[in-house]
Write a structure and sequence with these properties.
The complex is a heterodimer of chains A (about 220) and B (about 260). Chain A has about 220 residues and is mainly α. Chain A contains eleven helices and no strands. The N and C termini of chain A lie far apart (about 60 Å). With about 260 residues, chain B is of the alpha+beta class. Chain B has two domains: about 50 residues; about 190 residues, Phosphorylase Kinase, domain 1. In chain B, strand 2 and strand 3 form a beta hairpin. About 15% of the residues of chain B have low confidence. The chains are: A mainly alpha (about 220), B alpha+beta (about 260). Chains A and B meet through helix 1, helix 2, helix 3, helix 6 and helix 7 of A and helix 1, helix 4 and helix 5 of B.
Chain lengths: ~220, ~260
């Protein structure tokens, strides 16, 4: 009996020691996914509760962060019940066709080499806005790869899809972000409208169609 | 290697996720193609910018302490459960269990538990239901650690109160319950887990299940049983309600569980 209590205590301490360093990761991810600090806190708490309940199923030596993130992704999808709809938008007929090189040199330079702090802040703000307009899944892909810097294998574990799918979804998500940012940036006059320099037309219409379908 | 291919996989290249051979090919192409070089530079700096814009945020101060509070609640529920299970394990009270185990051993080894098929059994269908119910492993309606939730769930559903039976063995873990019909009778399937093995306890009325059952005494308790499918279904009766046990466990264990179950508390 005593031994059992001690075991439980040890488990709890171990869990806390492993989970505490991941709190910021979980919260950032939750905040970017839910877009609301209140929902984000709820989501993180649910994640930790679930993880603690099923802690005995975690295989020691494997990636704890990926394990936690998978639980959080599942909680998020279950709670918001958006998964199927989002996937349709993302992979279905409304998905934006993305090319390989969609921007002119001038645009690329304009976006990555801002003149002065004001423009830097403006671009940062525009990136956030463009990011928030992406589908849940696209946001998740970008967060896992570019913010959390997980490997494709880890992302595949978290999202529950094959590695090849990670590669194509991530490519698509990044391109969508760039296209969306570009169209805002043109409107704001940060960069010039595209001319003959592009290799493929900017699928703005597809983007707008998707925006309309979403709202 | 075409520019198109390179650009299509530029992201994976920057991520270092290409296989080594492709990585080298990409590098070779990039050395000589200024357009792709520019694209690569953009990919890198854009990613840096994106990281700065949507990068990690710090969790609010109170979040961790709130989460810990929730974990405390789980610990408390678990401790409560353990103490309920462990209560009969106090030294004085372990004697009946030991005695029961001995009784089963005696029956099992000396007398030999009858293996003859229970011919002419009227409620064979019902018995088969018990076995099927177990092998189907239908999901729980109530997944809970709290017995009162189970009691509440079955209120009005079954004509008798359903409480999860408790066991002296701490290894018997209650995992959930499901409303079910045995023949036309409403019944409760209680699911337990014993060291990773599922045990199903069916709680129902219908006295006919014991009509042609074998009868024995284990640890001073009357236990009915039916041989079925190479194993045994053991049945306890209490207050006009049957508690039928089945699981992928050794025969003596199923007898022991039926005898030691605390069905009234």
């Amino acid at each position: 009996m005593r031994r059992k209590e001690k075991q439980a205590e040890a488990q709890r301490r171990l869990f806390e020691a492993e989970a505490r360093p991941q709190l910021d990761t979980l919260y950032s991810m939750a905040l970017r996914l839910t877009r609301s600090p209140v929902d984000a806190e709820d989501l993180v708490q649910d994640t930790l509760v679930r993880a603690y309940r099923f802690y005995d199923r975690f295989e020691a030596g494997t990636n704890f962060k990926a394990w936690l993130l998978r639980i959080q992704m599942n909680s998020f999808v279950n709670r918001y019940r958006r998964a199927s709809r989002e996937r349709q938008v993302f992979d279905g007929p409304l998905a934006i066709p993305v090319g390989e090189g969609v921007m002119s040199r001038a645009s690329m330079r304009g976006l990555t080499d801002p003149v002065g702090d004001a423009e830097r802040r403006l671009i940062a703000q525009e990136i956030r806005r463009a990011f928030d307009e992406l589908s849940d899944e696209a946001r998740a892909m970008i967060l896992l790869a570019d913010v959390e810097e997980l490997s494709y294998k880890e992302i595949a574990e978290v999202v529950g899809c094959p590695i090849g799918t990670v590669m194509s979804r991530l490519h698509r998500a990044r391109k969508q972000l760039q296209i969306s940012l570009q169209s805002h940036a043109v409107q704001l006059g940060i960069i010039e409208d595209e001319d003959g320099d592009v290799e493929e037309p900017i699928p703005l219409e597809a983007f707008r169609a998707r925006k309309e379908a979403k709202s | 290697m075409s520019c198109k291919l390179v650009r299509r996989h530029l992201g994976a290249f920057v991520d270092g996720e290409l296989d080594p051979a492709s990585q080298i090919e990409f590098e070779r192409h990039l050395e000589v193609c200024s357009a792709c070089q520019e694209q690569l530079a953009f990919e890198r700096s854009f990613r840096q910018q994106a990281l700065e814009s949507i990068g990690a945020v710090q969790a609010p101060e109170h979040l961790w302490s709130r989460a810990l509070h929730r974990l405390d609640e789980i610990d408390a529920t678990r401790a409560e459960r353990t103490s309920i299970e462990a209560r009969p394990m106090r030294w004085r009270q372990t004697w009946p269990i030991a005695a029961a185990a001995v009784a089963v051993l005696v029956i099992g080894s000396v007398v030999g538990l009858p293996d003859s098929p229970s011919a002419g059994y009227q409620g064979a269908g019902m018995l088969q239901d018990v076995v099927n119910l177990h092998s189907q492993a239908l999901p729980s309606d109530v997944q809970t650690e709290a017995p009162q939730d189970v009691v509440r769930y079955f209120q009005g559903k079954t004509p008798f109160p359903v409480k999860p039976a408790r066991f002296a063995e701490p290894s018997m873990k209650f995992v959930g319950a499901r409303y079910i019909k045995v023949g036309a009778h409403p019944a409760a399937a209680l699911y337990y887990n014993r060291d990773g093995r599922r045990v199903t306890l069916l709680v129902f009325q219908s006295p006919e299940i014991t009509r042609n059952a074998h009868r024995t005494h284990v640890g001073g308790r009357e236990v009915f049983y039916h041989n079925v499918g190479g194993n045994v279904v053991t049945i306890r009766q209490h207050g006009g309600v049957n508690y039928a046990f089945f699981g992928d466990l050794d025969r003596p264990v199923l007898f022991q569980l039926a005898a030691n179950a605390r069905v009234a508390y």
